[in-house]
Amino acid sequence: MDTAVNDNQVSKNAAGTESTQERSRAYPLRGHLSAVEFATDKNQKPSAKAKLTYTRCDQRQVTVTMKAFEDTQNLFKEGPVALYGTFERNVFRVISEALPPKEQATA
After folding, report:
1. Which residue has the higher pLDDT, 9 or 49?
2. What structural domains and CATH numbers belong to the chain?
3. Closest CA to 94 of 31, 10, 44
4. pLDDT (0 to 100) of residue 47
5. Comparing C-alpha atoms, which of 41, 61, 50 is closest to residue 92?
6. Measuring CA to CA, which residue among 73, 78, 70 is closest to residue 32?
């Protein structure tokens, strides 16, 4: 049996049939956070939501909604940030800080 991991995640849904969900590529982003909101979901897990404005490689400024859950919500402070995450349906989901704290302070 081949157990190699690829970019697609295959799982069984409630009906027992396989469903495939493609994972988006994760990468670092430098930008500016604004409109930070903290909340808890129905399972009492903390979450945070904010607007992230960054400049794309083609020099266009883009603002997207950004979400973080549990251990990454402490990264949500208004101001300049360097974060690592993925885009899922036009929402940037934070995975971690893109730079160590010392380097991020100088960024």
Report:
1. 49
2. 24-106 (2.40.50.140)
3. 31
4. 77
5. 50
6. 78
Give residue 96's identity as a one-letter amino acid code.
S
**Token reading at 73:** 């919500």
The whole-angstrom separation of Cα 37 and Cα 77 is 10
Cα 53 to Cα 81: distance, rounded to the nearest angstrom: 10
Structure tokens at 59: 């020099």
pLDDT, tens digit, 9 for 90 and up, residues 48-90: 888 888 887 788 888 888 777 766 666 777 888 888 888 777 7
Give the chain's length: 107
Tokens of 29: 């982003």
The answer to whether the CB of 54 falls within 8 A of the CB of 34 is: no
Q: In whole angstroms, what is the distance from residue 72 CA to residue 94 CA?
A: 7
